[in-house]
Structures are given as structure tokens and as C-alpha cells.
Known about the structure:
The chain is of the alpha+beta class and about 375 residues long. The protein is built from 15 helices and six strands. Helix 3 crosses helix 9 (about 210-235), helix 10 packs across helix 14 (about 305-315) and helix 11 runs antiparallel to helix 14.
Amino acid sequence: MREIVETAASTNFISLVIVLIVAVSAIQGMSRGASGSVRHLVLMATEGLTTAAGIYAGWQGAALLSPMVQSWLISLRIEIPAERLGMLEQLYYTFVTGLRDFPLLRFGVLFLVGYAAVKLLLQRLAFFLLMDVFADRPQPFRKIGPLSSLTGGAIGIVSGAARALIFVAVLFIYTTFFPQTPIAGYIQESGLYQKGAKEVIEPVTGDFITNNLPVFARAVEQEFSQILQRKYEIIDSNIPNDIAEAAKEITASGKTDEEKARLLYRWVGTRIRYDWDKVRLYENERIWKEQTPEETFHTKKGVCIDFSRLYAVMARAVGLDVKVVTGLGYDGRGGYGPHAWNEVFISEKNQWIPLDSTWVASGGNWFNPPDFDKTHIKEA
């Protein structure tokens, strides 16, 4: 028993899964017999070919149509209304302006639509040409002879090898995306995975995946952060009159964008109190109290995202271009925690500058100070 436990503990489960994929396919092939296994292999090959053709056509179509779709959306001159929007309206403007402004999102949507359309069309064509193979007619019971069973098992092994390679390819992509994770290390300890990855996947793909996927992953992260920023722009597109009037009064003495931005930074940072009760409610009970900039303005309390959203609304009220930025902030104890702050565009300098109104109460200058990026790390 002890030897069995030790053997199980030392077994790499990635290798075990690969073996099981092939073994189960072989058993299924033997149970189907030669004719049934051939039919199954044809169906599997048809699925694989239509999928590959759909991916290629979707990719090429998205590359061709993406600039055309962007130009068309720009010509529509879609602007986010400066009024309170319902949930469906928020989703609509987020999606449409996202398609217009974010190339990866636009490419991804066009790719999925093209892939689905081409694959469906090819599957219908294959169904018409191979109607007898696709027809799922009930078969009368018949005994499968030894030769038919062995032939079916051999075909099943071929099918299982193809499935196992697909499994290895998925793992290969994962380890390329996340090479430093413990799971990636465990995957790479599998001898069968290494054999499939190095003898089949790498020779076929060359260095395309290893060189391009990490870059693509970073680009996706950055664009996702921009989409989150767009979400706040749309949710907070309505600027209440009292907030707009307050912002104009606060910045009345400001002559430049930088002076106006700094006046608002000081006002939000000194008038709004940090809401520790809201933090404890989330930490202890996992209850997140979402609040609008209007609520923050009237209650005079909130957490970092509330400071940042209120600052953004007030800045827009006086004509400043501003972003809500999310990421990690230094916690003063050697670590970093989730945080939010702002970036505002200063037209006279033609540049975006960072500021953190939440940290005003803690002392120091957090309006475009040197080394701001050492204490604030963007999500992307």
C-alpha cells in the first residue's frame, strides 16, 4: 500500500491525463469497431478542418474589415450624452465607443463573428456532401469481430493522439502566457508534455507563440484597463448642476489647466474623508458599497475610487480632460494594495500628469510629484 501511495504521489498528473485521453479513445474505437471508428474519425477531421478554416478566415476578415469599421463608426460622430444613462444605454455606449476606439476589442469582435459565420457555412456544406456519414441513424445490434475491434482501436489511438496534441497545445499556450506560475512549472515537469511540445508544437509554430503571445497578453491587459476607464466615463457622464457649479467656483482663480487641476486636487483631497467603515464592510463581510460621485460630493466621504471619480466629474465640469486610473498603490509597509487615482491632460504642456487626491490627507505632494510611478503601478 505504501508503495502505491508513493507511486501515486510521484506521478505527474499531466502525463496521466495525456495517457488517459489516448487510452479512452482507443477503448471507444474498439467498442465502435472499424466502420464506427472511421465515421467518428471523419467527423472529428471535419470539425478540425472547419475550425481551422474558420479561424483563418475570421483572422483575415477581421484584419481587412477593422479599419473600415473604425472609419464608419468615426463618421457616426457618437458622443456620450451628458445625462444620467440607464444600464442598457451604458452598455451600448461602452460597446460602440469601445469598438471605435480600441483596436483589439474591435478585432476580437470581428474575428469571432467571422469565425462563427465561416465555420457554420462550412459545416453545412460538409453535412450536405457527407450526409451519409453525418446521419445519426440507429444501428441494429451486430457483433463486432476481433479484426474490426482491433482496427477500431488503432483508429481510436490516432483520434486520441490528435486530442492529446490539442491538450498539449492548450498547455503550451498557458505556460507561454504565465511562465512563472507554479502550475506552469508542474506542466513542464511532464515528460509526455515536453515530448509533444518540443517535437510537434514548437516545430509547427516556430517562435511565433513564444515571441508574440506575451506581447499580445500585455496589449490585452492595457486595452482592458482602458475599457474600464471608458466604463467610468460613461457611468459618470452626467454632471449634476451642484457639482458643476462647485467645480467652477473652486477653479475661478485658475488661469491655466494646471492651476485648475491643482485647485480641484486640493479641494477633493481636503474636503472628502476616507471611509474606513466602507473598507471594513468589504474586508469583513465582502459587501461592496457602490456610490456615485454625487453621493461622494454630498456625504463628503469615500474610498480611493470615489475620490477619483468625483475628481474626474468636477474636472470635466470645467473643461479638463481627465482619466480614472486603477492599479496598485504603495501601502507604506513595504507592499502594494488595490488603488485608484487620476491623470489629467494639461494643454499648455501638452501632456498627461498623474495626481492622487486620496493621499492629500496623508501629507506630501501627490500632484505630479517626481517618481509618482514608484508608488503607483497601473494595472497594465
